[in-house]
């Protein structure tokens, strides 16, 4: 029997070939006898025509999977993740030949220049690819242990911009992008919602705007007078509401012309302004955090904050229900006050 005990696992593994195809993986068993029983079961499946599946390469699997994801709003990100995965493991490698060690090495290398949250999203994307190909009845070998490839992200503190720092940041921002920062701070929208906002999405009569969420859903967002004013004062040169002045000519783009805003342009401008006024550890996404924290603090309504931020889970919104030292002082003063209606001193 072709079972063996690897040094790195408490479980016996099987490894055999049938008609030129390799079958290998963990038996999930700690005794050789049980492992051999499992190996016989796998071998019987492999020799039964109804159980045999065709091989599929990484390149073929990605092409098949992208036909399903091409209409999703996150398609560009998905395509990038899959392209990097194919480059790392080889276009002609069969999915059934991708071992846990190969997957682990791929994500370790990816993590060198990326955050834990980004790597976890990449794991989710590759897992979705595997599950889809499995559903299409191709040979994927053993389903990888995706949970073991994910890492728990560090618990970062919620960063709230003070009004003083907000004014300094707006002053330091390049003029053509200052309104974008103000819109992010005032609305609590995600960066991509703002970047992808089109003039055709705006209904000034009803004071609403159609927004595309990160999961692909479309929602109607209410517009305040401030948000409406910010949108109305944008140049209408582009289909997108928010644009930037091209500082360097490049092919079709000419210096001084308006171009639709991109994530890179916004991020680079924000970083330049942040460093200029010495705001360490503040990220672009913290503008959304700031808006959320202010909503909770000024209204006390988690439901309003949840709706404004378009969270699907109230537990996510609870992160913003934080008290500052001043909030605690006021609460303690109120708790110890004798001036409570209905109670005599």
TrEMBL record:
GO terms for molecular function: DNA binding. InterPro entries: DNA_brk_join_enz, Integrase-like_cat_sf, Integrase_catalytic, Tyrosine_recombinase_XerCD. One of its GO terms (biological process) is DNA integration. Keywords: DNA integration, DNA recombination, DNA-binding. Residues 156-333 form the Tyr recombinase domain. Belongs to the 'phage' integrase family. This is Site-specific integrase.
């Amino acid at each position: 029997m072709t079972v063996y005990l690897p040094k790195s696992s408490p479980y016996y593994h099987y490894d055999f070939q049938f008609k030129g195809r390799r079958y290998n993986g963990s038996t999930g068993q700690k005794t050789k006898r049980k492992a051999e029983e499992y190996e016989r079961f796998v071998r019987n499946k492999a020799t039964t025509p109804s159980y045999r599946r065709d091989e599929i390469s990484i390149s073929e699997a990605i092409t098949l999977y992208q036909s399903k994801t091409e209409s999703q709003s996150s398609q560009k990100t998905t395509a990038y993740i899959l392209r990097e995965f194919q480059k790392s493991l080889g276009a002609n490698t069969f999915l059934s030949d991708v071992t846990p060690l190969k997957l682990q090495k791929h994500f370790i290398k990816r993590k060198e220049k990326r955050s834990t949250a980004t790597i976890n999203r990449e794991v989710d994307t590759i897992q979705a690819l595997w599950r889809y190909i499995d559903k299409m009845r191709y040979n994927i070998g053993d389903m990888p242990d995706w949970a073991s490839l994910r890492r728990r992200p560090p618990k970062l503190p919620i960063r709230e911009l003070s009004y003083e720092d907000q004014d300094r940041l707006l002053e330091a921002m390049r003029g053509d992008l200052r309104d974008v920062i103000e819109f992010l701070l005032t609305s609590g929208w995600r960066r991509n919602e703002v970047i992808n906002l089109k003039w055709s999405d705006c209904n000034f009569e009803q004071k609403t705007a159609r927004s595309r969420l990160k999961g692909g859903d479309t929602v109607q967002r209410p517009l305040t007078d401030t948000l409406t004013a910010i949108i109305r004062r944008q140049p209408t040169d582009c289909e997108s509401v928010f644009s930037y002045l091209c500082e360097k000519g490049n092919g079709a783009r000419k210096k001084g012309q308006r171009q639709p805003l991109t994530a890179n342009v916004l991020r680079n401008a924000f970083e330049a302004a942040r460093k200029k006024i010495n705001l360490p550890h503040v990220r672009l996404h913290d503008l959304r955090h700031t808006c959320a924290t202010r909503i909770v603090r000024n209204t006390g309504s988690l439901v309003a904050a949840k709706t404004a931020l378009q969270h699907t889970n109230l537990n996510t919104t609870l992160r913003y229900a934080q008290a500052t030292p001043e909030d605690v002082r006021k609460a303690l003063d109120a708790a110890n006050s004798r001036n409570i209606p209905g109670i005599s001193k």
